[in-house]
Amino acid sequence: MQEQVSKKGIWKVIGASSLGTLIEWYDFFIFGSLSVVISTKFFPADNPTAAFLSTLATFAAGFVVRPFGALFFGRLGDLIGRKYTFMVTLMLMGGATFLIGCIPSYEQIGFMAPLIVLILRLLQGLALGGEYGGAATYVAEHAPKGERGYWTSWIQTTATFGLFISLVVILLTKFFLTESQFDQWGWRVPFLLSILMVYVSYLIRKNMDESPEFKKAKAEGKTSTNPLKESFGNKYNLKFVLLALFGAAMGQGVVWYTGQFYSMSYMKTVMMLESNQADTILGIALLFGTPFFVVFGRLSDRLGRKWVMLLGMLLAVLTYRPIYQAMYNITNPVLKEEVVASRTEHYSESQQGEDMYEVHTINKVFSDGTTLKEEHKSLISREGKAVQGEVKALDKTTVHINGGNYIKLILLIFIQIIYITLVYGPIAAFLVEIFPVKIRYTSMSLPYHIGNGIFGGLLPAVSTYLATNAKTIGDPTFYLEGLWYPIIISAVSFIIGALYINKNMVAKDLS
């Protein structure tokens, strides 16, 4: 009977913790999911590539400050408790996300737009830096002995479900609005909706009890008076922090962001896949792949955390380039047989009605069902005056795939999601078990958020830069060059983890 009560109780803990964490991840990922649109709203439109890179850099900024959030909120969590700390992070994240949806565009307020976006993005990063450590610690401290991998893996699913829900909300918003409506104001809807989700999560979380392990430590007077000093000023504890970072969290971070973010950016900006189709494909792969977080979390309870995580890193190192080569070939027109081609011309005005453009559209159909649309847009008059010479305003290519290619691309993304579940499913339990209760929130949050926030969060911007630079110098395999970043980081983390992480270390009590 006691076991049943215990199981029922922990499911309540999982539900309350997971819902709040899921919403925070949703808030955080909306920005990345809409990065292509955001680049045209908050940054100068005269250089689309620079605007997109600026958006990715702003997206990455939220990850860069996550370690500072981990330190600040981790300290609070070890001093005053897990529950109240991640209540604060929830409200901070929700408020920042809502406000991003309210910011006027670059055309309306100039450089204030990207500046405000950056500030709110930094607040999001700080909030997430405190949220994850609190949720993982809270669940782990409720979990039965020997089952931490299984129970904490449910928290791990929230990040992927957060991205999945962000994609679903975006697709539904696009479905109910015209393309013009979505471009003008509809992209704000997913940001604004987050305030309702946060409110529901707040109502649930405020009725949660504090972690039993923390309550026991507090009652016995064993909580830390200076978590930062005990975590990082103690050489013995610092050794474990560094090993957790470089032997696990660093590799986990780049595998995670390659599969969920670089793949999405790659489909839209390199493969030129239609945005809705790319989002749908990623969403389907996430839906089928997410249960494996729990599978590998439970497996780590039986086999140990180390080799489950390292297997995901090793597979990524060995197979990323073949996977992305296969993805590129799916939409590469050079490898396809063209069966139909047509060309149309029309004229269009700018939204302000001051400029006139000539648009040339080329539509191609290939034998495998792939369709390709090219738009070449040139400015021909400004404010009623002719323009001397052609001023190019837009070159846009959009690809749509069907049948076997569609299924093949889902499978290639799904394989990357499996790598994520291998490295991410066990890592919460791995990090929690290294550190004692009194400094656990602080100690486990920092390596996790440096690994994910710095090494993982910089991946979209660094990889896009590497690929863009390789294209500029004429490298025919430019589309694969961005992968060197996650491959090298994963390889280094694999070597360190294989050599220095051991089963006794994971199970050791440092208190």
Automatic annotation (TrEMBL):
Where do transmembrane segments lie in this chain?
Answer: 12-38, 50-73, 85-106, 112-130, 151-173, 185-204, 236-257, 277-295, 307-324, 409-434, 446-468, 483-501
Q: Which CDD domains match?
A: MFS_ShiA_like
Q: Where in the cell is it found?
A: Cell membrane
**Which residue numbers delimit the Major facilitator superfamily (MFS) profile domain?**
13-505
Top-level taxonomic group:
Bacteria
UniProt-listed Pfam families: Sugar_tr
In terms of PANTHER family, this protein maps to: MAJOR FACILITATOR SUPERFAMILY TRANSPORTER, SHIKIMATE TRANSPORTER
Q: What is this protein called?
A: MFS transporter
Gene source species:
Sphingobacterium tenebrionis
